[in-house]
Amino acid sequence: SADYNFQAIQDRWLPVWDQIKPFDSSVPGDDRPTKYVLDMFPYPSGDLHMGHAEAYALGDVIARYWVQRGYNVMHPIGWDAFGLPAENAAIKRGLDPRNWTYENIDQQKSSMRRYACSFDWDRVLQTCDPIYYRWNQWLFLEFYKRGLAYRKNSNVNWCPSCQTVLANEQVVQGLCERCDSQVTKKALTQWYFKVTDYADRLLDDLDTLEGKWPGKVLTMQRNWIGRSQGANVEFAIDGSERKLEVFTTRPDTLYGATFMVVAVDSDLAAELASGAQPETRMAFQDYLDKTKQSNDIERLATDRPKTGVFLDRFAINPLSGAKIPIWASDYVLADYGTGAIMAVPAHDERDMAFANAMQLPVIDVLDTGDPLPSESRVATTGDGTIINSGELNGLSKDQAILRAIEILEAKGLGRGSKNFRLRDWLISRQRYWGTPIPIIHCEACGEVPVPQEQLPVELPSSAGLDLSPKGSSPLGAAQDWVNVSCPSCGGAARRDSDTMDTFVDSSWYFLRYLSPNSTEFAFDPEQVKKWAPVDQYVGGVTHAILHLLYARFFTKVLHDMGMVDFEEPFTRLLNQGMVLMNGSAMSKSRGNLVRLSEQLDEHGVDAVRLTMAFAGPPEDDIDWADVSPSASSKFLARAWRVASDVSSSVGSDVTAGDQGVRKATHLFLQQFGEAIESFKFNVGVAKAMELTNSLRKAIDTGCGPADPAVREGAEELSKALSLFAPYAAEDMWSILGHEPAVALAQFRAVEKSLLVESSVVAIAQVDGKLRDRFEVPADISEDALRELALASDAVKRAIGDKELAQVIVRAPKLVNIATKG
Ligand code: ANZ
Ligand code: ZN
User: Fold this and answer.
1) Which residues line ligand 1 (CB under 6 A)?
2) How far apart are CA 256 and CA 372, in angstroms?
3) pLDDT at 522 over 80
4) By alpha-carbon position, which residue is closest to atom 32 of ligand 1?
5) Is 751 left (phi over 0), alpha (psi -120 to 50) or beta?
6) ipTM above 0.85?
7) Which DSSP helix (H) or strand (E) runs through 233?
């Protein structure tokens, strides 16, 4: 017979699939149960790379598996097409971002087709299409109506190189996520989404995802939301009507507050400083200017030398009545809690560092058994018994926290409260390539929403606009576009010229796929009922915080708007690892870039995909230097030869076939299903290799190629391989006499009766010596095997009256018994 030739096979089947559309999920009358499998959509910033190849190979395993288990699987794809990467690249090359983006999309699309991704090509969306972003604008206005979109002036994260604001989430260790420049602060009026209104729900609902999302991602989300429970406490300011309110997680330590600290960049600090001595005012101003150059992470670092300015004022401790000095410092942040703290150096490291730097007193209020901080000048942070604290004395930390809150509430000087690390989501960007914000600014009427019927507010052509970053949106210069009459009073007005953060686009795209071309709805409620939420989401861990948090937020808002009846968008999440080369991320500058197109030319699509799946557990990184696509290719050739060696003249009664081969096939079906459903794709591939070997043996030296059991095995093998190597699988399926597509062929039901009989020989060892062997069912439990071994006469004799030290059971094959002495 002919040889396995991946190129010929690819050329043969791609056009056939284009015709059959095996993954069309909207065939009228299709009554299969539904599943929604979603891969994170790509940025169109070039052709597909190895990272895409991994992600889409793995997503495909899941999507194809469920189709072959009888589901109507919706597996759509689209492009996250707005945003900085496209815009920066377009500017660099002097192109229109629009053309550049659509060209890349076309290129990626044809690469995905060749890569045989099981996407439903009738559900494609591109976020830069007006038909899509119109609904961003619609949603924005819905949020606006509900007070969830608002504008405020504040100090925002500013990337001096991208010349645009960044959400907190886009600042990574003080650097711009996109370009690695040092991020600074700038006062600007910007649009926000009120994510903080949903902070509790965003946190609490993570519990419902336990065991379904990677634990690491849940932890990252929890930390990002960062809920702290504590109290707000009011301190009087000596000689002033003004109150100083602090947030503390430790109201139990109130008696130990020996000074107050207000954030140097807070309004309160400025106010207090303005009434101070001239020298203090100057020192304060000087210090404020310096602070503006550092970021929050630097400011909060415990090991940073403490600096500050005494503001010549004193506060009164509401419980002890003590008069304590008020300082301004950078280690307190203006936008967390109340922007001011009571400092308890005895039990807080940063406060102690400050007290040591400024020679301030320390009062111990918790006896933890460690040396007293007032003497050691080292803070103690453990639990213990409250001391030096009047009515709180003798209580434990937790008791004292509750008691202190009670006392404060009774006196009207404080209340229990909580704070979140989570901030509202800053969504406006001063860039061209994004969704225009559908608001018109009128001198007389203020902010006026663009009326529904005028949506979408389309992006004007970029011709004649200077797109280079300069701190204000390029759209402001599009005179014809920006100058409009006010929808409310008809007077001269201007469009808001900022565009939306692209994370807005990706916060609801998974719903848009349900009716991607609808001009009537953002998403069709009937389709939502049928498909949503997403059953399985697949994507990189780089999106563990931002994207997932925002999509969860949108889903909750849509839930409250009555548009969806679920509160979490992604029922299950799988994070795939990265593809590395020689231990590090691939990049042009490192010179370790592996080109996907070259790999595909050399080894073929199937071998590359199979290699991705076989490399290890999907969440682990793959080092391309450690894997072997040519070995994958050899295996595929082997599997393909098995199919081509099966005789066409075979009796159809498979039950009359060779029982050993049948067992191998059905055991394979069972184990393969378990492996795929638990995301052990590499195990699935290994099982397919085992089955291939069994079938080879059966053909060459066993029951021979005409046995119906061999045909059964070869058929199930081609179905299984369809998950990893769709071209080879289709060809095998065709050689076995079937019409395409193998991707639609259902796995045979596992015949349990074949498995029950299947037995293995287990051995029992005592102190390293073989003492007995017995036949056991292959699926015997550890407990059953242990009992069996301990009941064996030979084993009993070997143990004699010695005491057992350890019994190690490796079901189904081994029991290892160690005795004492
Ligand atoms: C007194 C105290 C005593 C505190 C003690 C801690 C230990 P999390 O868990 O992060 O919420 N804090 C409050 N607002 C702050 C701000 N704007 N900038 C910097 N620090 C601030 O931490 C809450 C604790 O961090 C608060 O409790 C406050 O210090 C400080 F033994 O109050 B604590
Ligand atoms: Zn007006």
Assistant:
1) 228, 247-250, 253, 263, 332-333, 336-337, 339, 341-342, 344, 347-348, 419
2) 13
3) yes
4) 248
5) beta
6) yes
7) strand 227-237
